[in-house]
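User: Before I run my own analysis I want an independent prediction to cross-check against. Here's the chain; please return only the structure tokens and, at the end, one sentence I can use as a sanity check.
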Amino acid sequence: MTLDVQLVGNAMQMAVVNLAAGQTVYSEAGKFLFCSDDVVIETKLSQPDAPGQPQGQPAGAGGFGGLLRGAMDAGKRMLAGESFAFQHFTTRGGDGLLALAGVLPGEMRVLELDGATTWFAEKDAFVAAEAGVKFDIAFAGARQGFSGGEGFVLEKFTGLGSLLIAGAGNFVDINPAEYGGRLRVDTGCVVAWDQNIRYGVERVGSLNRQGVMNAVFGGEGLSLATLEGDGRVILQSMTIDGLAKALAKNTGAGDKKTGAGMGGLFGGSAD
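Assistant: Structure tokens:
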């Protein structure tokens, strides 16, 4: 059963889910906004069982083994900087209303997993998913991690059902095959891509004068992400690092408007 989701808003979207009887949605902690009174909320270390799978019986494990596996998965998520536990949402019988959102101003996207396609996403992109979608942590490799910083730890999604992701700014869907087969992207602009895309990291320019200028003053750092293949890529227009720098730069902007502090001498914004 496809999840009934409506994306509401522009600058800060939220997902309003009509949760049907028998459906279970799980999300990372901190993504819940509100729900109707008939929605049951439970916090657990493990993901919900896929439809048709015996309750409390993760594939290949049961009883104490299932508990141990859940604890190991939670520990792996915590080490990767993800939520330690999941929130599970179900209804008491009838349809329920549930609202979720990301933590940054930006867009959300609903991806429908068909059971055969794997999706990868950067950290913190995951908002929520149906019980049939499996959330896991993947590692891009030491080279990508040491070179790119972002992209070393990835979110991996398989299974069947609806997946909700979020990012900063506006989203754009693009297929590298339509632009020569390869894209070079600021590592912070990558949100998600499907299994047909090869993800990598390359250095910005050569180790010469221009290469140093690009790295130091170009604003991109030492590396760019590379995306190759014939598949779907989702990029975002705002990076978390860029947002943090903009907020830090404008801290104390009120002093500029009143002429107080050093900012008032050079900011040119005093009325």
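Sanity check: Residues 250 and 256 are 10 Å apart (CA to CA).
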